[in-house]
Design a protein that fits this description.
Blueprint lengths: L2 E3 L6 E4 L4 H13 L2 E6 L5 H12 L3 E4 L5 E5 L8 E3 L4 H11 L6 E4 L10 H6 L6 E3 L7 E4 L7 E4 L5 H13 L5 E5 L4 H13 L4 E4 L3 E4 L10 E4 L4 H14 L2 E4 L12 H8 L2 E5 L2 E5 L7 E3 L7 H9 L3 E6 L11 H10 L4 E5 L2 E6 L9 E4 L4 H11 L6 E4 L11 H7 L4 E3 L1
Parallel strand pairs: 2-15, 3-14, 6-7, 10-11, 18-19, 22-23
Antiparallel strand pairs: 1-23, 1-24, 3-5, 4-5, 7-9, 8-9, 11-13, 12-13, 15-17, 16-17, 19-21, 20-21
């Protein structure tokens, strides 16, 4: 699909999309819990749908209520298929593989797209310590596994992704790991682990940690609520693009975001404040509007998914913005550091990569003129970053492979149009 975005002023109010990080974790917890769970405000992104498909293959019975909530009935992990496919979800593959290993059945774990090239050697190294047989494709997908996983005191490296730890925490909790400790070195994206622990607590599994270096399990406290209800919160990752759009071409109001959320990408608020955007933060209502903005310094090590909207923001800030955490970008849907550098160069934005630093040389008005074609590289966040940058560009921007947004935010272009942006899709 090709989407063309024209320079536009936007205004109005929009509801944030459902958070896929919250949605996928809730699906996993509902699978592990014996009983009925009702998930309110369920997401509909490709990653969310992949998670629903996986828990069905692992034994959950799925239906929707008349109000649109998702009902999940489960008796725990009881595979109904010899193969699981997590789509292109990095969280999905890293979280559901340890859960699938709770079964003693041999299973093939696979994915699609860029996920086939992401490193999975973590499982080769850790699973044998937990009694799980594993065979990978030289540290990549597909994986074949056979459990059952037996919790044990282990030490893992958290430098690549916190998502591996999320899977182990959930699997250990479900397997009854009282007294067991997971020791973690070099943990990245701590806010995402907070989200995991909050979801687990909601479902009755209690995990304590010592400054995110040692995670220990206590006796579960099963909920007496039946069915158990869980509401998926608004997605700060997707809303970050809307908020930056408001800062560039607003003002707008974004509803449905929890200011107390543990989602890492809530940090976009600090970047907007530092850049000088006009911001009014209320309970589940955020108003954002343009003001003359200046370059800023931001550490995105714990929230690497913010790089694309931050680059779009920095492009229109006077001066050179410095963003830390580039080493977290290599194993995303694309190599995001290089992709952002290449695609934003087409808009006249110079991006310099210096080790772990990204330097974005911005200006209130980009000098390059003429219609521009960019490419998403099949990366949902690149497509959205180019679209919001286009709102303030001096000509139209054509985005190729624009359907990449379906991975996390299928309604993104529709939401932009609802706010008054001129967007053409073909």
């Amino acid at each position: 699909m090709i989407v063309t975005v024209y320079p536009s002023a936007i205004k109005g109010t929009i509801q944030a999309n459902a958070g896929k990080s919250s949605m996928q974790r809730a699906c996993a917890a509902a699978l592990l819990r014996t009983g009925t769970t009702i998930i309110h405000n369920p997401g509909n992104s490709h990653d969310d749908l992949a998670a629903i498909n996986v828990i069905q293959k692992l034994g959950a019975v799925i239906s929707y209520t008349p109000e649109g909530s998702l009902q999940i009935i489960s008796k725990g992990v009881q595979p109904q298929s010899p193969e699981l496919n997590c789509g292109e979800s990095g969280l999905g593959i890293r979280m559901f593989t340890p859960l699938a290993a709770l079964s003693n059945q041999p299973l093939l774990i696979n994915g699609t797209g860029s996920l086939l090239k992401r490193p999975m050697h973590f499982f080769d190294e850790v699973f044998p310590q937990l009694g799980v047989k594993v065979n990978s494709n030289n540290g990549q997908l597909p994986l074949t596994i056979q459990g059952p996983l037996v919790p044990a005191d282990i030490t893992i490296d958290g430098s690549l992704s916190s998502q591996f730890l999320t899977g182990l925490l959930m699997a250990f909790g479900a397997a009854g790991a009282e007294g067991i400790t997971i020791t973690v070195t070099n943990l990245k994206s701590k806010p995402y682990i907070d989200l995991t622990l909050n979801v687990m607590k909601h479902f009755g599994w209690i995990v304590e940690h010592d400054s995110y270096t040692k995670f220990s399990f206590t006796k579960p406290i099963p909920s007496t609520q039946n069915p158990l209800s869980y509401e998926v919160e608004g997605d700060w990752s997707g809303a970050a693009f809307l908020l930056v759009a408001g800062a560039l071409a607003g003002g707008i109001t974004v509803k449905g975001l929890d200011i107390q959320s543990t989602q890492a990408d809530k940090a976009i608020l600090q970047a907007l404040i530092d850049a000088g955007a006009r911001l009014s933060i209320q309970d589940k209502n955020i108003e954002i509007a343009p003001l003359p903005m200046k370059a800023f310094h931001f550490n995105a090590t714990d929230c690497p998914d913010l790089f694309p909207p931050l680059v779009a923001l920095a492009s229109y800030c006077e001066g050179t913005t410095v963003i830390e955490g580039v080493n977290r970008l290599a194993h995303k849907e694309s190599d995001r550091g290089l992709t952002l550098q290449d695609e934003f160069a087409k808009l006249g934005v110079e991006i310099v990569l210096q080790g772990d630093l990204m330097l974005v040389k911005g200006s209130a008005e980009l000098e390059k003129t003429g219609r521009v074609k960019v490419h998403s590289r099949q990366d949902h966040r690149i497509a959205m970053a180019c679209a919001i940058a286009a709102l303030k560009y001096n000509n139209s921007v054509e985005i190729e492979a624009a359907e990449a947004i379906n991975k996390s935010y299928p309604d993104f272009y529709t939401h932009l149009m609802a706010l008054g942006a001129r967007v053409e899709m073909k």
